[in-house]
Amino acid sequence: MKIRVNREELIKLLSNLSVVIKENSIKPVISGTKLEAKNGMAVFTGSNLEFSFISSIPAQIENEGVTVFKIPLILEYIKLLEVENLDITVSEGKLLIHRAEFSIMDWEEYPEIKQPESENIFEVESQEIISAFEKVKFSAFPTADNLAINCIRMACDDNELNMISTDSYRLTKYFLETPCKSKMEVSIPLESVNIICKLLKDSEEKASFGVKNGILTIKKGNSFMSTRLIELPFPDYKTIFKNMSYTKNIELNTADFKGSMKKVLTVAKRNIETKNGAIFEFKGNRLISTVSSGSAKTVQKIDTIKEGEDFKASLNVKFVYDFISNIQKNILIKATNSSSMFIMEEAGNKNYKYILMPLALRD
Questions:
Q1: Taking a C-beta distance cutoff of 8 angstroms, is the pair 156, 183 a contact?
Q2: Does an H or E element contain 319, and which?
Q3: Is-contact 17 35, C-beta < 8 A?
Q4: Nearest CA among 191, 181, 43, 192 for reference residue 114
Q5: Do residues 355 and 244 touch, judged by C-beta distance below 8 A?
Q6: How far apart are alpha carbons 231 and 29 in whole angstroms?
Q7: To pair with 121 at 20 to 30 A between CA atoms, which of 86, 232, 280, 320?
Q8: Rounded to whole angstroms, how far apart are CA atoms 230 and 147?
Q9: What are the DSSP calls for 254-267, one per residue?
Q10: How far is CA 61 from CA 86, 265, 298, in A?
């Protein structure tokens, strides 16, 4: 194989592949990327067996061919070069790049990874889908110990695309208006969501999403992504949102609330008995937040606009802070008492809802 490619394009592509590929001691060839030179393109494939990424860049091809190599050292090397184009050659079991040679792997051992065909269900701007994922992924269960909720639930119907996540203590839903060609409801692994966000972060193109045989596919320009979906049942979030009820409305300035919560969280996270827990007392048009950790205590007071009787409850401060970090306008809090669900929204934004269950109230 002997080809010439643009150095900047190669750096960008190898950097993206590095997001996907992991070390694999059982099948070491998976730790590398496959490069195939054909039809005027250099086609790169990377996979961790759960998530696959195929992308290509234009190439001047003198000799077609296939090889597999590990990315880190080569990427570090070509970043140091000051040339516009790079000649890449495979010769005598080595990969030759600009007066340097690198080890390669047996490409015949690399698994065959194809682009599974699937119907395009919806198309959306890359930055919009990233924003939607970011709005909800903080409340997904963080590890694969509970695989059923270690994911983002994506539901598509008519002109509605909903993103949902839960860790069983809280529930987040974000609505994105986009035309859907057919109904779809799938669970995308949280790790795959993180990879998708990284691969799309610099894109100004639209991304097309499809599903077939338990695989989510994403197409964008010359790039193709696919990830296995989680087949386990997701909690019945629809009933929870349908049965929301409350008797009290509170509105707060988000900047003031965020500043207050940051101070409260500093103490609350050191509370051994109820980590991250604090008392929230809604009294008149004031919110009094109190927390102690044995060696420290703080009481924070901010103004509110409240409809309904005074009450107090114990909430996880970190969970509250997670949501307010994702909004800019005033926050609306709806609740009934110390044991009922807290519903949080951004003022003027009906597309974003957050439900938080309170902690046991201790005096």
A1: yes
A2: helix 317-324
A3: no
A4: 43
A5: yes
A6: 28
A7: 232
A8: 8
A9: HHHHHHHHHHHHHH
A10: 12, 58, 67
DSSP state of 105: B
The one-character DSSP state at 71 is H
With contact defined as beta carbons under 8 Å apart, do 149 and 189 qualify? no
Digitized pLDDT (tens) for each residue of the chain, 363 residues in all: 999 999 999 999 999 999 999 999 999 999 999 999 999 999 999 999 999 999 999 999 999 999 999 999 999 999 999 999 999 999 999 999 999 999 999 999 999 998 877 788 999 999 999 999 999 999 999 999 999 999 999 999 888 999 999 999 999 999 999 999 999 999 999 999 999 999 999 899 999 999 999 999 999 999 999 999 999 999 999 999 999 999 999 999 999 999 999 999 999 998 767 889 999 999 999 999 999 987 899 999 999 999 999 999 999 999 999 999 999 999 999 999 999 999 999 999 999 999 999 998 765
**What tokens appear for 96 in the block?**
């030759």
- The CA-based angle 170-174-177, given to 5 degrees, is 165
State the Cα–Cα distance between residues 327 and 255, nearest whole angstrom.
10
Alpha carbon distance 6, 18 (integer Å): 18
Please give the DSSP secondary-structure letter assigned to residue 223. E
Provide the token pair at 92. 């005598």
Q: Distance between CA atoms of 212 and 221, rounded to whole angstroms?
A: 20
Which residue ranges form the domains of the chain, and what is each CATH number? 2-109 (3.10.150.10), 120-241 (3.10.150.10), 244-356 (3.10.150.10)
Phi, psi of 169 (to 5 degrees): -105, -20
As a whole number of angstroms, the distance between CA 358 and CA 229 comes to 31
Distance of alpha carbon 124 from alpha carbon 131, whole angstroms: 11
Which residues fall within 8 angstroms of residue 339, CB to CB, at 6 or more apart?
313, 358, 361
3-state secondary structure of 95: strand
